[in-house]
Amino acid sequence: MLRKLISDLLAARRKAEHKACGSSTREHSIADRATSNHGDKAIGLSPADFLRRAETLVAAGRLAAALECYKACVRTYRGAVDAYVGMGNVLVDLWSLEEAVAAYSKALELAQRSSIFSAVLFHSHYLSAANRQATFDRHRQFGSMMSMPSPRAFALSPDPDRRIRIGYVSPNFTRHSVGYFVEPVLQHHDRERYEVYCYHNHRMSDDTTARIRGLSHAWRDISHANDDAVEELIRNDAIDILVDLAGHSKGNRLGVFARKPAPLQMTWLGYPDTTGLRTVDFRITDRITDPRPDAEQWYTERLLHIDNLFLCYQPPADSPPVERSRRRESEVVFCSFNNIAKVNDDTVRLWSRILAEVPTSRLVIKSASLGFADTVDRALECFERNGVAADRLELRGWINDRQNHLELYNTADIALDTFPYNGTTTTCEALWMGVPVVSRAGAAHMSRVGAAILGCAGLHDLVAQTEAEYVDIAIGLALDRARRMSLRAGLRNTLLSSPLLDQAGFTRRLERQFRTAWASWCDLPRFN
After folding, report:
1. How far is residue 280's CA from residue 261's CA, in Å, rounded to a whole number?
2. Which part of the chain has CATH 3.40.50.11380?
3. What distance in Å separates the CA atoms of residue 185 and residue 166, rounded to the nearest whole number?
4. CA-to-CA distance for 401 and 407, rounded, in angstroms?
């Protein structure tokens, strides 16, 4: 009954959204024809017609219908690259990552575009069965595809002690995870020794954008500029160290980094893996997430290790206070506010085991994709196959207001991290709101971020090495109400005195690495 009620409510919402989107009569006609079993060239639809209608269906929240529209397009026009890309995008939101990667891969077969290659690489990290060697090889293939002639010489003074110009390149100088971690560094940079340029590759801006812009010596909007133009802009700005903050995530400008517009190039924060580009000299990391010597073989970049942790967190200034739990002693609420793309079948299986062992518990999952009714249906079916009834779940979509998002942690007791792709911002937020996080550590960087963050908070015992240990830790914490109450009351103060929030100290450690790398370039002719 509950599942039917949820489905009915979501169907009603979907109907209202569809009505509100204001589709034209022609678009509705195209939709009917595009998703029918008779879609072929005889019905007179061009690829653009299919794509427009699919985009309209996505805007209306009708993902399953949009997927059928894309499929009809590729059945009719087998070389429709953009339809395969659109199919991949929809499948990600539908929580079908294997199929999404397959769709992006098909698009890449048809067109060797760097953006499509990046989509394949990025989304492959969500797959539980991803092969590390194969993934690394694909990154190197990307690097080979993007290889350029030798870069022009740099007319820069090789003085190791002079003021250095650092350029940060990102599509996410906004209220975004990357923004939360880069803003404190920009706040604490030594202005006498470092001059900061920000290259923003997004048309959107918000209050975070305004603050970051105010913290930079120079602000460049590159969202409308091609790679050649951005290369010239960076060269004219005489940047000494250029830092990529996106990796293969959406909106990256790796095509610029392939051109080597700065003598030293680094990657940091936005992506849990190598860029694959030989023109990127260093990857900024730490000894927990990328321990030597094993980690070095998986990167085309050299590793710059920052002491303690590779990032620092800046909690929102408007964070709500941590509230004392008002639930009955036997009630436990688990949560995961990670992108649901990180939640694979193995994770669902483990979470279901935990729920079964703690019968008075329930699980709250919040993700933007759960704003779509079709995705909710898939999630409910997946947990049902693992023996979890709908009334044990609360599935929430995007919460636009940051304060309300953080407030939701006050309704939870324990956060369950994802594997193999750990959370980062979500782990920091949960701890800041007094909610302990149970994480599982693996071999790759993306599987060790939870261990690094929890280690900074002194919570090493909440890091599992195996599936069985992960389940046992979660159950043990669920049964230990006294410890949970103690953590809820004290975690925020613990973080305030931890390396995770030592923003000035982190920036000094980062600057030392910048200065060391710069001195090496100045001293060694091979860097020039």
Report:
1. 11
2. 164-312+504-527
3. 12
4. 10
Question: Where does residue 330 rank: exposed (0-12), middle (13-18), buried (19+ CB within 10 A)?
Answer: exposed
Q: What's the CATH number for 164-312+504-527?
A: 3.40.50.11380
C-beta separation of 31 from 65 below 8 A: yes
Every domain of the chain with CATH number 1.25.40.10 lies at 12-145
**Parts of the chain belonging to CATH 3.40.50.2000:** 332-500
Give the architecture (CATH level 2) of 12-145: Alpha Horseshoe (1.25)
Listing DSSP states for 306-342 in one string gives PSS-S------TTPPPPPPP-S-TT-EEEEE-S-GGG
* Tokens linked to 311: 């990032």
How remote is the C-alpha of 153 from its chain's centroid?
35
> 299: closest CA among 275, 269, 279, 263?
275
pLDDT tens-digit profile, the chain (528 residues):
444 444 444 444 444 443 333 333 344 444 555 555 444 443 679 999 999 999 999 999 999 999 999 999 999 999 999 999 999 999 999 999 999 999 999 999 999 999 999 999 999 999 977 789 999 999 999 999 999 988 888 989 999 999 999 999 999 999 888 988 999 999 999 999 999 999 999 999 999 999 999 999 999 999 999 999 999 999 999 999 999 999 999 999 999 999 999 999 999 999 999 999 999 999 999 999 999 888 999 999 999 999 999 999 999 989 999 998 877 777 999 999 999 999 999 999 999 999 999 999 999 999 999 999 999 999 999 999 999 999 999 999 999 888 999 999 999 999 999 999 999 999 999 999 999 999 999 999 999 999 999 999 999 999 999 999 999 999 999 999 999 999 999 999 999 999 999 999 999 999 999 999 999 999 866 444
CB-based contacts of 475-484 (< 8 A; 24+ apart in sequence) = 475/354, 475/357, 475/358, 477/414, 477/436, 477/438, 478/332, 478/334, 478/354, 478/358, 478/361, 478/413, 478/414, 479/358, 481/329, 484/325, 484/413, 484/414, 484/436
Burial pattern 412-422, b for ≥16 Cβ within 10 A else e, equals bbbbbbbbbbb
Inter-CA distances, 160 with 45, 203, 524, Å: 62, 36, 11
Q: Give the CA distances from residue 33 to residues 41, 44, 54, 144, 463, in Å, rounded to whole numbers and listed in that order.
A: 11, 10, 12, 42, 52
CA nearest neighbour of 5 among 391, 354, 302: 391
CA dihedral 44, 47, 50, 53 (to 10 degrees): -110
What class is the 332-500 domain?
alpha beta
The letter for the amino acid at 121 is L
